[in-house]
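re: the backbone from monday

yeah here it is again, tokenized this time
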């Protein structure tokens, strides 16, 4: 492991000023992602800024029924919070589908969003990786790529974003609140994550000196009827091969509003907007569901080992829509 400096920030102002002073430094929250990568040598920051003393743990249901979740709230606290369980089931289910109880107790919401890909080549510094070392190459494209992306890939990178929770938040139209020396901003989750393009080392639009302070979920009409479905190699403690988060509102038997987002298939939560469009205003009959399944995989590009994800995604969409049909 490389030597690095460490400091505990007492408040957001000091956290941000350390970040500006220490080039290449990283924030440390629960440490469940970053510490593995430090010990493996995949990340080599010269300095860590421990943000655990910052007052960012509150989970607050606002008067307008939107939910504000502090960036340091633990994954467990959010998943088991009464307002989340009753109003945003997909958020609770997507968090509980990930990691283990011990890890979820330590892991924060901000860290979950910024967790690093599980691509084997990224995590093992003995391999080339354009995400870790720009310009060095992407062995996954011709190598072990069963877990890799089928949408939005580039010639530089085919890694997937590993967070289950981010997929749930994508189906809820969440926004990320941030703070830096330039002020505060709110970023829609679909704009927050980037596709790899020519800069796979840049995973989000966050600037180097920007701190995530909270996640906001608007008071959406569809949040209550929402669900998360995850296909993985083991029934626990495994990352998604494919997952789907969904949320729906019916008018009679017809779909009035719907959100579908897929995980395990792209460098970011992948909104299935074409599939959503095929469902609007229609009852969930088998023919309609079949069209949505085909729309969900339109444009997929597979690699040597991951063609199975196309079929898995179609089946996940069908199962999600069957579940919704039972709720209509
Ligand atoms: C064995 C194992 C299995 C797992 N399985 C799953 C799974 O199935 N599904 C899943 O979704 N996840 C899974 N995870 C990942 C886990 O959810 C993440 O490790 C965790 O959420 C990261 O949160 P953290 O607070 O520990 O982040 P940290 O490790 O502290 O930080 C992660 C990154 O976020 C940055 N960061 C943290 N907070 C902020 C902030 N407020 N502002 C700006 N930057 C910040 C850090 O600088 C770092 O780059 C697993 C992890 C392990 C170790």
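seq for it, each position gets an aa:
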């Amino acid at each position: 492991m490389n030597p690095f400096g460490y400091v505990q920030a007492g408040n957001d102002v000091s956290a941000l000023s350390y970040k500006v002073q220490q080039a290449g430094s990283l924030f440390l929250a629960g440490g469940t992602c970053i510490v593995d990568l430090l010990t493996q040598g995949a990340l080599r920051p010269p300095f860590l800024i421990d943000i655990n003393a910052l007052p960012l743990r509150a989970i607050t249901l606002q008067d307008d029924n939107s939910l504000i979740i502090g960036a340091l709230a633990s994954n467990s606290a959010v998943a088991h919070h009464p307002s989340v369980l009753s109003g945003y089931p997909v958020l609770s289910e997507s968090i509980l589908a990930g990691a283990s109880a011990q890890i979820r107790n330590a892991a924060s919401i901000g860290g979950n969003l910024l967790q690093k890909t599980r691509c084997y080549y990224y995590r093992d510094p003995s391999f080339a990786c354009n995400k870790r070392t720009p310009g060095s190459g992407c062995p996954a494209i011709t190598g072990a790529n069963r877990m890799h992306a089928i949408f939005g890939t580039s010639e530089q990178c085919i890694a997937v974003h590993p967070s289950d929770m981010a997929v749930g938040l994508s189906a809820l139209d969440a926004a990320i609140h941030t703070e830096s020396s330039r002020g505060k901003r709110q970023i829609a989750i679909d704009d927050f994550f980037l596709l790899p393009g020519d800069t796979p080392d840049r995973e989000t639009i966050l600037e180097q000196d920007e701190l995530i302070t909270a996640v906001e979920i608007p008071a959406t009409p569809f949040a209550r009827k929402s669900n998360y479905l995850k296909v993985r190699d083991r029934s626990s403690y495994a990352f998604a091969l494919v997952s789907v988060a969904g949320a729906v509102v019916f008018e009679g038997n017809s779909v009035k509003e719907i959100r579908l987002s897929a995980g395990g298939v792209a460098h970011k939560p992948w909104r299935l907007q074409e599939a959503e469009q095929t469902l609007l205003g229609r009852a969930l009959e088998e023919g309609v569901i079949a069209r949505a399944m085909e729309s969900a995989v339109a444009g997929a590009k597979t690699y040597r080992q991951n063609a199975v994800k196309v079929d898995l995604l179609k089946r996940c969409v069908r199962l999600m829509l069957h579940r919704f049909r039972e709720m209509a």
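Residues 227-327 form a domain with the Enolase-like; domain 1 fold (CATH 3.30.390.50). The pocket of flavin-adenine dinucleotide is lined by residues 26-34, 51, 71, 75, 98-99, 103, 106-108, 110-112, 114-115, 162-165, 211-212, 237, 239 (CB under 6 Å).
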